[in-house]
Specification:
The chain is mostly helical. The protein contains 12 helices and 6 strands.
Length: 341
């Protein structure tokens, strides 16, 4: 198996601007004119909170705190979040409960659960609880928020807003499969697919509802089988995938791989079934070249993740989303490596 190196935060730090991490890059150079987005800043906060504050360099610790400030400023009085922020620092109008709300809630719950600085935890608590009253109609947004609620409840298991949010997420995501052959609750796979069963697994594990766990595990198992038709990971492309679509399609994006890695890690921790350990390893291997084209999907020198696997090879742009997907997958691989010593 081709192993990934330990997380390298050099490129993530190179993407920093005065107000956060820039969303896009041209190759390795930040596209300043593209500004910032809450989606990516929430991903930054999630990855750095998982890393552990004590292991962060001064620059990474500063980035975690500035990401917390960004999320506070992006939140409206209703608890929703604005996504776009211009390079000048001005936020665009229009807070919503779309994916960025869900990702922000996931990051805030994780900071609260795992943060070592009491001041940072308190800021995450306040911002999370302000957002916990929101209910999104979008399944993926609610899935992200459900994972945030699950994290929050690890530290405060009796917290009513977090429990209600987790239960609302489970209710929205608890859907019948389309058919016996298409064991998925949607007619097409789209993006960040594995987060849907992962949220069901997390919610069911917390509430003790075994049926939710089993439904989530069944959907995740089907997705993993669907995306490994030739023994390596071939994730759903950005255009989606339906029952009649060819198995190998482009462009494939690292966010799909990271979502699968997250879900397999959770499933393995709960069940100990080696199929989930193998699933996580396939995610690691996708980045290191065991994919449809046999190409490495990151810059080994800087730690930048390539933006996508196209029919002609890697998209060599190294934006924040792809770099954070790589870092998240590396974090899981690193933890497994350290725990096996």
């Amino acid at each position: 198996m081709n192993l990934l190196p330990a997380p390298n935060f050099e490129h993530l730090l190179a993407l920093r601007g005065p107000h956060g991490v820039y969303e896009h890059a041209e190759k390795s150079v930040p596209r300043i004119e593209g500004g910032y987005c809450t989606d990516d800043v929430a991903r930054v906060a999630l990855v750095l909170a998982r890393q552990g504050e004590k292991s962060l360099s001064f620059d990474l610790s500063d980035l975690l705190w500035s990401s917390m400030e960004f999320l506070e400023l992006a939140q409206s009085p209703t608890g929703e979040f604005v996504n776009r922020r211009e390079s000048s620092g001005d936020f665009e109008l229009g807070a919503t409960s779309n994916d960025w709300w869900g990702r922000a809630m996931w990051a805030l719950g994780t900071i609260y659960a795992h943060g070592e600085d009491s001041g940072l935890r308190e800021r995450a608590r306040r911002t999370f609880e302000s957002g916990a009253v929101v209910r999104s109609p979008w399944p993926r947004s609610m899935a992200f928020a459900t994972l945030g609620a699950h994290e929050y409840l690890q530290r405060s298991p009796e917290n009513a807003p977090a429990r209600l949010l987790l239960e609302a997420g489970a209710s929205l995501l608890d859907r019948e499969n389309v058919s016996a052959r298409w064991r998925w609750p949607e007619a097409r796979l789209s993006y960040a697919n594995a987060v849907l069963p992962e949220a069901l697994i997390a919610a069911g594990a917390f509430t003790g509802e075994g049926r939710l766990v089993e439904r989530g595990l069944d959907q995740l198992r089907w997705l993993l089988e669907r995306e490994t038709p030739r023994g390596h990971l071939s994730v759903t492309p950005c255009t989606g995938r339906g029952p009649r679509d060819a198995r190998r399609l482009f462009d494939q994006q690292p966010i799909e791989v990271a979502a699968m890695s997250d879900a397999c890690v959770r499933a393995f921790a709960l069940t100990g079934d080696p199929v989930w350990r193998q699933g996580r390893e396939l995610c690691e291997m996708w980045f290191s070249g065991h994919n449809d084209l046999g190409v490495v999907m990151f810059d080994a020198d800087t730690g930048g993740g390539y933006d996508g696997l196209t029919a002609n090879g890697p998209n060599l742009n190294q934006g924040a989303e792809s770099t954070l997907a790589l870092l998240s997958t590396q974090q899981h691989a690193r933890r497994v490596s350290m725990s096996s010593r």
